Amino acid sequence: MSIPAVVDAIGIVGTALTTIGFLQSNWATSNPEGATVNIKAGLPEIDHEGDNLGGEINHVYAFDTRNGYSGQSDGCHIDSGGICTKTVDQSVGGRRAGYISVSNNNDATCIAWITVQQYDDTRGGAWTGDIRYGCGQDWYNSVEPAGRLKDEQGGGEYIPKCTWIDGDHTNDIANTALKFNVGAYGEDILDTVGNDACAPTIYGADNGPIADQPGKRNTRVRPTWMTNQLIVSNFTSQPAEELCNSATSWGPDFIGPDGRFCDMDSKTLAPLCSSQDVDGCIEVDQSEGKLVKRMNIARRATSIVHKTYKKVSKWGH
Questions:
Q1: pLDDT at residue number 296
Q2: What are the C-alpha distances in Å from 233 to residues 132, 168, 249, 260, 277?
Q3: Residues 6 or more apart whose Cβ sits within 8 Å of residue 167
Q4: What is the DSSP letter of 28?
């Protein structure tokens, strides 16, 4: 069975997702031992050729559709613009990989895209650097196209950004690994429309397999007084990152003195536009109790209302 030439990937534009045709050459062939994963490193422009976007992949891990650990492959070195192809040695090769996790060694890698080919030749999935870029994570520009935009999206080449992972966190790169829902940005793309398109990808601070399940929200239901309130703290001892990274923290959404917003329902961080002017940043209208997320991906720019609150409480102002 031939691999489909057109595969749905994503561009995050407001609450809508655009479809992008991935080049067939970006896909690896199937392998009898399990899912085969292609990892593409970004490539800078010629006048930035000293910027090495390649690095050392540590492991690739697979999890089944129930998020059960299925197996792993060893790592590889990727030069800038290069591709690492790995087949995960799954305990049951024909079992679909529902989640893929990629971890890095101490030589940082800027990943432009990841594609997954299932052993049973059913539809795989794709992850691109634009996903993490649109969610306020570490990124860089790249120059190589991954495919073409659909006609309804204006046509032309689709050139995703790349996103950094690094084992020793050099230059404050926060994460060593990422894990994504293989179907969320491919076969099941419509399931993410109207929801948080960042949720199907999660990140880890070390290079072991990430046990958590992407897109799985906090099972503790917050009461109305929490969901209706936003805390804006000016106390230097209360960074939003610390609150968001704690497994036991619980309470209203929070903006800290570190210039970040923590969504306490999904435990995800986003930078404030006032402190980090990037796509995916948050603008705060305290008088209206409104958060607006700014996006600019796949040639479209928009600002959408991200959340609204009935009460905004200021601490230490």
A1: 56
A2: 26, 30, 16, 11, 20
A3: 56, 58, 103, 104, 105, 106, 107, 176, 206, 207
A4: P
**Helices and strands counted in the chain (H then E):** 3, 26
Rounded to a whole number, what is the distance in angstroms from the first to the last CA of the chain?
Answer: 63
- The residues facing 141 across adjacent strands are none
pLDDT at res. 195: 40
- Residue the block writes with tokens 């899912």: 35
CB 266 within 8 A of CB 200: no
Parallel/antiparallel/unpaired status of strands 99-104 and 55-63: antiparallel
In the numeric block, the tokens 């090495």 are attached to 52
Using the structure block, give the residue that is written with the tokens 């230490």.
Answer: 316
Residue whose token pair is 């749905």: 8
Q: What is the pLDDT of residues 265-298, one digit of tens each?
A: 878 888 999 888 877 788 888 888 888 877 654 4
Residues in the chain: 317
Whole-number pLDDT of residue 157? 81
Contact by Cβ (8 Å): 90, 97:
yes
In degrees to the nearest 10, what's the CA dihedral of 30, 128, 40, 86? -30
Contact 256, 262 (CB under 8 A): yes
State the greatest distance between any 2 C-alpha atoms of the chain, in Å, as a whole number: 63
Residue 56 in contact with residue 82, Cβ under 8 Å?
no
Q: Which amino acid is residue 108, in one-letter code? A: A
Q: Which of 16, 299, 13 is nearest to 154 (CA)?
A: 299
C-alpha to C-alpha distances, 120 to 3, 81, 190, nearest whole angstrom: 11, 29, 23
- 264-274 residues labelled b (16+ CB within 10 A) or e (exposed): bbbbbbbbbbe
| Residues sharing a CB contact under 8 Å with residue 48, sequence separation 6 or more, in sequence order | none
